[in-house]
């Protein structure tokens, strides 16, 4: 029972981000309006250095610190690196837009760093307390970031997200307290090894609440109502982060709570997840078809994609969890690419909303159109893209556990889903633009960023082995 | 033992009284003051449970800081009590229903649960629960504790960035004052003179 500084070593990235938050706050306070970019560069530098620090930890064995409330395993390291990368690219795309609006002040970057810290805490959490604090630490700044642009639309989105998000947190807390009541333990290893004290009824009741909160955070049906409104109403820079990095964090929430903490109730959560997954794929894919607003369409597509990802968890075996992890990473990359293209087309005062805004993009900027094409093909699951491989991996895991009917159902939904993704491609390539002026991307960094981002989709599709094996190793015998 | 029971019942009844006065008093300031009084009563009950640290923190933090702030807010905002009371009877039915359900559930828990079987923990005389809490918070839960501090920092920054509007400082703009022409300041309007009937 003592606390020594050496305990901090596995948490060096977290400590570093915390220090950098303080530094960034002071710098943005004293530098004033003229040097607004300083906060941006500081934030990006923080993310880059964090990547180095985390990669450095990766080679070690799994480490547990702070009295079983903190863990660094392979999954945590891999996903943290992707969270940094997603945030880095989001800010890179959003920076010119941010500079022109009131969002451009230092607070946006500082709050982004808080979001990153919250996700890191969540990803490394090994007890219910840290899990919950991490979740809140990344949700709270997001609510504020959505509301920062004071318009009626963003205020509505922020309120919806805030009210629903806090009730989801309350659900989670309620469920956690029930599990605590049933097992008498708060840390994940203790819960894992606990013999259920009373009848498992209380734990199962707790599981239901926990699952509802997890589904909400992932944006899976029937807890998906907020996704379209928030994606549409939030300023694009925030949507970028919401649609990519937070999905990774929500995935970890699911893994830690269901797979790590409650393996005793695998049967129960498998059944619930089958329902959630089917409903997500159904609602997501069918409703996305009729959307004319591209952000709403992508929002519904995200609901469907979460359904596919959950199929990996449904399998209940390590191979499936690995496949789900691969899926969530690939999805985050695709989603970031899609919203990134929208972000780069948008200017201050003009945000892309309608699918028709993409009309004839091929004439206006062929490279961006091609990037969007790659992303759309990947989301639809057309080979040789990464989306195809991710879907196959998840379905193979399902077949392993003899859930062939579910795999077949998922395939049917995937074919339905391909329609609206291809519609976007059709609009970009075969329709005449209303405005023929060329779209130029200023700055080599952004061009490079979006190209790497979208080409990753192709590269991971052709050479998935490296990342896929890393994901598998995190669960199977890792 | 008897003295303890007398003290307990006195402050428990006083707590129930002040808590109901929070709801029933017509003036929001009186409600807030009764809330302060009920905090004080519960602090004494906690003290009787040997939770002296929490009991004092309740007074310092809630009475000393939170409720003072609360009183300021209540006094500064001109709350229209009429609209607040509008649907009182309509909502009262639902409220009473909820109270009955909660009450029945609690009774059931108390009667069926084996509360008498709980061990009576006697702490040694020199036991300090401030010390014990500090020990737990700064060793076992140090990570969560520090992160909660970050959570508060987030709240501060978001609250400021949401409520702080772009600088509209009321400072003198000398060049615009010098540039001002008489016609910017005074508008002469032609009005038709009043007609006598």
Name some characteristics of this structure.
heterodimer; A: mainly alpha; two-stranded antiparallel ribbon; 1% strand; B: 197 residues; Four Helix Bundle (Hemerythrin (Met), subunit A); 9 helices; elongated
The level of helicity of chain A is over 70%
Mean pLDDT of chain A: 90
State the CATH class of the domain at 1-79 in chain B: Mainly Alpha
> Beta-strand percentage of chain B?
under 5%
Q: Widest sheet of chain A: strand order?
A: 1-2
**Span between termini of chain A:** 29 Å
H and E string of chain A:
HHEEHHHHHHHHHHHHHHHHHH
Q: Which blocks of ≥5 consecutive residues of chain A have pLDDT under 50? A: none
Oligomer: heterodimer
The most extensive interface, with participating residues per chain, is: A-B, 33 and 21 residues
Largest sheet of chain B: none
What is the CATH topology assignment of the domain at 1-79 in chain B?
Four Helix Bundle (Hemerythrin (Met), subunit A)
Unreliable spans of chain B are none
* Continuous helix count of chain A: 20
Written account of the structure:
The complex is a heterodimer of chains A (478) and B (197). Chain A contains 20 helices and two strands. In chain A, α3 runs antiparallel to α4, α5 runs antiparallel to α6 (152-183) and α14 packs antiparallel against α16. The two termini of chain A are 29 Å apart. The mean pLDDT of chain A is 90. Chain A is 75% helix and 1% strand. Chain A has one domain. Chain A is globular, with a radius of gyration of 21 Å. Chain A has 478 residues and is an all-alpha fold. Chain A has a two-stranded antiparallel ribbon with strand order 1-2. Among the domains of chain B are: 1-79, NADH-ubiquinone/plastoquinone oxidoreductase chain 6, subunit NuoJ (Four Helix Bundle (Hemerythrin (Met), subunit A), Up-down Bundle); 128-160. In chain B, α1 packs antiparallel against α2 (28-48). By secondary structure, chain B is an all-alpha fold. Chain B has nine helices and no strands. At the A-B interface, α1, α4 and α5 of A face α6 and α7 of B.
